[in-house]
Design goal:
Blueprint lengths: L1 E5 L5 H14 L14 H13 L4 E7 L2 E10 L8 E8 L8 H16 L4 E7 L3 H9 L3 E12 L2 E11 L2
Helix pairs in contact: 1-2
Bound molecules: coenzyme A (COA).
Length: about 170
């Protein structure tokens, strides 16, 4: 059974182990496993800060008790930018293609609609991450632009795709 809920203090240890693994499972996150150096205290603070902000959320998904996905929306506290959310997501590789990413993003979109604050949801994806970009398009995200040489992976510079969704 899959359980999707907001991250809290009790997820901090699992989140560190998880992040070190998923960082090395693809070239599509902004960090590799050995670069992930957050401490338990860092994670607890991040989860707490997201939980208290009305325009931020940090989700975890557990499948049969195992942490298999994390996703978050981060936003500004400033009035001029507080309506814009930026999301990030990962699913552990052994669980790709099962619909977990889709459910996590749908949950975040519902959160945005119910927040009453977020009016725009943005994301940035490595241009070679075609399965993720296809997923985002199918969920209603629109291509808004390209950031040239935004990633450096395996000796190669890669562009990023900016996508966004208006929240009504
Ligand atoms: C991108 C990512 C979050 C998608 O999560 P997911 O749980 O695999 O996504 P879903 O299963 O909901 O949907 C993936 C889509 O690709 C298709 N797909 C088919 N085979 C697949 C495979 N081997 N792996 C991934 N997706 C596959 C699925 O059918 C689905 O399309 P559909 O909804 O039209 O059926 C996940 O692949 C991931 O964590 N990748 C590494 C990190 C990353 O890229 N993060 C995003 C950075 S922008």
């Amino acid at each position: 059974m899959i359980i999707i809920r907001e991250a809290s203090e009790k997820d901090a240890h699992n989140a560190i182990i998880y992040s070190k693994i998923v960082g090395d499972e693809s070239d599509n996150l902004s960090f590799s496993g050995d670069e992930f150096n957050k401490t338990i205290e860092d994670e607890i603070k991040i989860f707490h800060d997201h939980a208290v902000a009305k325009n931020e959320i940090f989700l975890v998904a557990y499948l049969d008790g195992k942490l298999v996905s994390m996703a978050d929306i981060s936003s500004s506290r400033k009035k001029r930018r507080q309506h814009v959310g930026e999301f990030g997501i990962s699913v552990m590789k052994a669980y790709w293609g099962l619909g977990i990413g889709r459910i996590m993003i749908e949950t975040m979109i519902t959160f945005c609609r119910e927040s009453g604050i977020i009016k725009k949801l943005n994301l940035v994806a490595n241009a070679k991450n075609t399965s993720a970009i296809r997923l985002y398009k199918s969920l209603g995200f629109k291509h808004e632009g390209t950031l040239i040489k935004d990633f450096y992976v395996n000796g190669e510079f890669l562009d990023s795709v900016c996508m966004g969704m208006i929240i009504d």
